[in-house]
Specification:
Elements lengths: L17 H12 L4 H17 L12 H12 L4 H9 L2 H4 L4 H23 L8 H14 L3 H16 L6 H21 L3 H15 L1 H13 L1 H21 L4 E6 L4 H11 L3 H5 L2 E7 L2 H14 L1 E2 L5 E2 L12 E6 L5 E8 H9 L1 H10 L10 H16 L5 H11 L3 E5 L5 E5 L4 H8 L1 H5 L1 E6 L2 E3 L11 E5 L16 H14 L1 H16 L4 H6 L1 H9 L5 H10 L4 H15 L1 H5 L21 E2 L6 E3 L11 E5 L6 E5 L13 E3 L1 E2 L11 E9 L5 H11 L3 E8 L6 E9 L2 H12 L4 E6 L6
Parallel strand pairs: 2-6, 13-15
Antiparallel strand pairs: 1-2, 3-5, 4-5, 5-6, 7-8, 9-10, 9-11, 12-17, 14-15, 14-16, 18-20, 18-21, 19-20
Bound molecules: manganese (II) ion (MN).
Manganese (II) ion (MN) binds next to loops.
Length: 744
């Protein structure tokens, strides 16, 4: 058909396939058929753009897009897909932009070309299985339109068919990619015809020896096999005619070489054991005829028990329908027979592509999915169904869970794929790579351009994180990160980065409490290590840091220290004879005006060394001076030198003269990560403890923790301790301490 001279009346430098020639000829006489117009214009445009370019084989480059368009046409692709087949390489290989494609060919074609162009940019070589799976998932997520993947598969199929002129390393790289990424994708979409061919072609380049061996076996046995099949065919054809079953096709079924190889490997069988199995396919018109044909087959040949499967009554998850049986054929050799209708056959061969085909004939003028919902519902079902077929259920569950959640797939500069939640930013990305990358992140480049850190990432972005040793997280990051990993690690950093500060503070607190004498030695002692462990810290330093940032209260530590020292040095400590923290039984039950119970009628004063505040556990010490009873905090270090008989139990009065519970105002200051709602959450906890708030103030500064000042009305120390612990356990809270008083 060299009669067509197009464009510019120059003779074409390649022979075009018949379907395209016909298209071009009918376009010359009738410009009004929109489908033909689009296809011809796309071809013409691609032809001009690729003019002068050649493939490795030396043939004109245009042969490739023409072949890809042809494959798409064979697969039942619509006009937009066929046009995209012609144009799929122009954006990458010429200076045409997607915008220009859209102007000339409409949005649909432009989106397909853009999608395929994006997918072409990735380098899949040398990936682990996990990475390969990520790639496949990314493909599905990225190619919002499944047709993009089908166009890409057609592109890959033709490249695989024409791999011969390339260097062996390149052949193997492309073949491996095909085997790991593209064949499974074709499988997932049910396009078996493409899947088989991709598998066979990659097999050929990846395992050339095995491939040739199997190929030789198959051709050696061809005559024998074909003779056998021919005999069976004749017998069956006659009987089916007798039964007036109209047979559309009855022929030996080609087995693809990789399938044989795979079966041999998996079942650990020799070639003969696998290949002895001849196979035959019968295609009839109706479902009913399928079953009638089956009856004929089972009448002529003896069925092998347990080998019959009715996938018409119970279709396979990917919509595959067929009757399968294995019978004892000539010479007692097993013969596999498949029986199906033409429509079933198309679905088996073309998978999701057949879906378009049948939608088209079904009267819809849209040859693709009419809306997103339908498209995804269908793919979702496809995947649900296919999951039944897989052996590795966990893998499939994982896949299903992840495929349609709102993930976004981006690349490291090395080309590894990272899956993140939708809306994830460069900071999320950095923390996913490594905590240290996040903690020292200075900036980010997305697709080579500097980016703000809160920029949401898009599928296919290449993200590069720039780190610098003295860079640190900013509290501001918590306002935009979306992954829990990043959020937690930023918080952790803020807690941990103050470790030194916290340790110093904890040490100071404890020293004040226990006295300077022998303090350093105590910290290094085994009993102190025991204290740390009893408080659930690994080391004394951890304990001090915990004390410093408020992970544990001073009271708790001191009590533990006393406990441990008491057990260790019973003799010495027995003299101290510390009173219990519980209220003294001598306290009066009647309402009393005195703020301190147990000192009624006595002179007393608040000790200057520890200045206990209402709510702190206190103890009275009888002094020899005129100032009477001295009221100390129970954990005051000066008590160590007091003889037991000098103590008298006292407690704060919690009931006023009218019998009402007395509360004491306590000021606390909370340092918290500044995020929306943190104050509300803290106040919620306060009210959970039935504590009233008299006053609350918040100071915030850019990139600084928020400082929250609360004046709360506390009934007693225990109530305060519980509340403080509860606030301290909030992940946003960095530190809580009491203002103007003995700390917790
Ligand atoms: Mn291409």
């Amino acid at each position: 058909m060299n009669a067509v001279t197009f464009p510019d009346s120059k003779p074409l430098d390649i022979a075009l396939p018949d379907w395209l020639n016909e298209c071009l000829i009918s376009h010359q006489s009738d410009q009004n058929n929109q489908d033909i117009d689009l296809i011809c214009r796309a071809f013409n445009f691609a032809y001009q753009l690729h003019e002068g370019q050649t493939r490795k084989s030396g043939e004109p480059y245009i042969a490739h897009p023409v072949a890809v368009a042809g494959i798409l046409r064979d697969l039942g692709g619509d006009k937009a897909m066929i046009a995209a087949g012609f144009l799929h390489d122009v954006v990458e290989d010429t200076n045409v932009t997607v915008e220009e494609i859209e102007e000339m060919f409409g949005q649909e074609v432009a989106l397909l070309v853009e999608g395929v162009t994006k997918l072409s940019k990735f380098n899949f070589s040398n990936k682990t299985e996990q990475q390969a799976e990520n790639f496949r998932r990314m493909f599905l997520a990225m190619a919002r339109d499944i047709r993009v993947i089908v166009v890409k598969l057609a592109d890959r199929l033709h490249n695989m068919r024409t791999l011969e002129p390339l260097r062996p390393e390149k052949q193997r790289r492309i073949a491996r990619e095909t085997k790991e990424i593209f064949a499974p994708l074709a499988n997932r979409l049910g396009i078996w015809r493409v899947k088989w061919e991709l598998e066979d072609l990659s097999f050929k380049y990846l395992e050339p020896e095995d491939y040739r061996e199997i190929q030789n076996f198959v051709s050696e046995k061809r005559i024998d096999r074909e003779t056998r099949i021919e005999t069976v065919k004749n017998t069956l054809q006659k009987r089916l005619d007798d039964m007036e079953i109209q047979v559309l096709e009855l022929q030996g079924r080609p087995k693809h070489l990789y399938g044989i190889y795979f079966k041999m490997q998996r079942q650990n069988k020799g070639f003969h054991e696998i290949y002895d199995l001849a196979a035959l396919r019968i295609i009839v018109k109706t479902n009913e005829e399928c079953y009638r044909a089956l009856a004929v087959v089972h009448d002529v040949f003896k069925p092998m028990p347990g080998r019959f499967k009715d996938y018409i009554g119970l279709p396979k998850p990917n919509r595959y329908q067929s009757l399968h049986t294995t019978v004892v054929g000539l010479n007692g050799r097993p013969l596999e027979i498949q029986i199906r209708t033409l429509e079933m056959h198309h679905i088996a061969e073309y998978g999701i592509a057949a879906h378009w085909k049948y939608k088209e004939t079904g009267g819809s003028n849209h040859t693709h999915f009419s809306n997103e919902d339908e498209k995804f519902t269908w793919l979702r079902q496809l995947l649900d169904w296919q999951s039944d077929l897989k052996d590795d259920q966990e893998y499939v569950d994982n896949l299903k869970e992840n495929l349609f959640d709102d993930d976004v797939y981006v690349f490291t500069p090395n080309g590894d794929v990272i899956a993140l939640s939708r809306g994830a930013t460069p900071v999320d990305f950095a923390y996913r790579i490594h905590t240290e990358v996040g903690n020292h992140m200075k900036g980010a480049r997305i697709n080579g351009k500097w980016s703000v850190l809160d920029q949401p990432l898009h599928n296919g972005d290449i993200v590069e994180i720039i780190t610098q040793k003295n860079c640190h997280p900013s509290i501001d990051w918590l306002n935009f990160v979306v992954t829990p990993t990043a959020r937690n690690r930023i918080r952790q950093w803020f807690k941990r980065s103050r470790r030194d500060e916290n340790m110093a503070r904890g040490k100071e607190l404890l020293e004040k409490e226990l006295g300077k004498n022998g303090f350093e030695a105590l910290l290094k002692s085994q009993p102190m290590q025991t204290v740390a462990e009893k408080c659930n810290y690994q080391s004394v330093d951890d304990l001090l840091a915990g004390l410093g940032y408020g992970g544990i209260t001073l009271n708790q530590v001191v009590n533990r220290v006393r406990e441990v020292t008491v057990t260790n040095q019973k003799q010495e400590v027995s003299e101290v004879n510390l009173p219990s923290a519980s209220p003294s039984p001598s306290c009066p039950t009647k309402p009393n005006k005195s703020p301190i119970l147990g000192v009624e009628g006595l002179v007393y004063h608040i000790a200057g060394c520890c200045k206990p505040l209402p709510g702190d556990p206190i103890i009275g010490v009888v002094t020899r001076g005129k100032r009477g009873i001295s009221i100390h905090a129970q954990n005051c270090s000066n008590l160590e030198n007091v003889a037991g008989e000098q103590f008298i139990p006292v407690r704060w009065n919690t009931v006023d003269s009218k019998g009402c519970v007395t509360t004491y105002p306590v000021d606390v200051q909370i340092e918290a990560l500044d995020r929306v709602g943190v104050l509300k959450d803290i106040l919620l906890r306060v009210s959970d403890h039935h504590v009233n708030v008299c006053n609350a103030g918040v100071k915030t500064g850019r990139n600084k923790p928020a400082i929250i000042n609360l004046r709360i009305e506390i009934r007693d120390r225990q109530q305060l301790d519980y509340l403080v612990n509860s606030i301290n356990n909030m992940s946003d809270v960095l530190h809580i301490h009491r203002v103007n008083g003995v700390d917790f």
